[in-house]
Structures are given as C-alpha cells and as structure tokens.
Write a structure and sequence with these properties.
This protein has helices spanning 8-15, 19-27, 46-59, 64-71, 82-109, 124-127, and strands spanning 5-6, 34-35, 41-44. By secondary structure, it is mainly alpha-helical. Strands 1-3-2 form a 3-stranded antiparallel sheet.
C-alpha cells in the first residue's frame, strides 16, 4: 500500500525542488503540510501536483501571491478533484490570453514604434509625434494595447 503522506525529502525528489524552496512555499502559504508526532513535515500526495502547478505558473510569470490566491480555492480537507483543477484553470485562462496577446503584439511591433516616448527613431515622428503616447502613462504604450491616434 502507498503511504498517503510523504516526507519533505520525498516530495523534493519527486518535484525536483530543493527542500528549502518547499519550506519557502510553506512560509508563503502555498502548501500546508501536517506534522507527525516528532514534528516532521508530512505532505499529502496531492501536494506533488500542487507544487508542480506552482512551478508551472511561476514559469509563466505569475507571482507567488497570484498563485496563492488561486490555490486558496482548492479544498483543504480532501485531495483536489479534476473539477477543482478545471475551475482554477478557467480563472487563469483570461490572464494567459492577455499575456499571449501582448506577446503577439511584441512579436509584430518590436521593430517599430512602441510608444515609449524615446522619439529616437525616424518612425516615432510619424507614429508618436511629440510623444502623444506619453499622455496615457509611462512605458511602451502601443505594446500594452493602445493604438496610435493618427
């Protein structure tokens, strides 16, 4: 029979994370291991998926706080079901779509005017004369979704 609880060393080996990283996740409220009679951390097998999910979302640029909020929607008293994970995935899709749209704009517009206010390219005099994009705020306005007002 498979032990329903695993040690921090076992979960580190299974997820590829250092033990210190798992402890950090615990400090940030991302995982909540139990303790055995000797005070040692004991993780549920479902924490393997939870930690893998954390690593995946970090790789896509989500902050630990964003990840913590999403994981807070999972049940504490049972292993998350497929439906639980689908619910979280739906809430993340909108953010991912926005990121994809931004990357597509970056891919097609990076070599042109991005509305940053530098006015150093000859094209900027056409697309962003007098830094009109700066009226909307700082940064690469056109890459953030705004369009030149020509």
């Amino acid at each position: 029979m498979i032990d329903p609880e695993i040690t921090i060393g076992a979960i580190a080996k299974r997820t590829g994370l250092a033990v210190s990283a798992i402890r950090y996740y615990e400090e940030r409220g991302l995982v909540r291991p139990g303790r055995d009679a000797g005070g040692r951390r004991r993780f549920r097998r479902s924490d393997i998926r939870r930690i893998s999910f954390i690593r995946l979302l970090q790789g896509f640029g989500f902050t630990l706080e964003q990840i913590r909020k999403e994981l807070a929607r999972l049940p504490e008293n049972r292993t998350p079901t497929e439906a639980d994970w689908v619910r979280i995935a739906k809430s993340l899709k909108e953010d991912l779509e926005a990121r994809i749209d931004t990357l597509r704009r970056l891919q097609t517009q990076l070599d042109g005017c991005i509305g940053c206010g530098c006015l150093s390219l000859k094209r900027c005099a056409l697309y962003n004369p007098g830094d009109i994009a700066g009226a909307s705020g700082s940064g690469a306005r056109y890459l953030m979704g705004e369009r030149p007002t020509l």
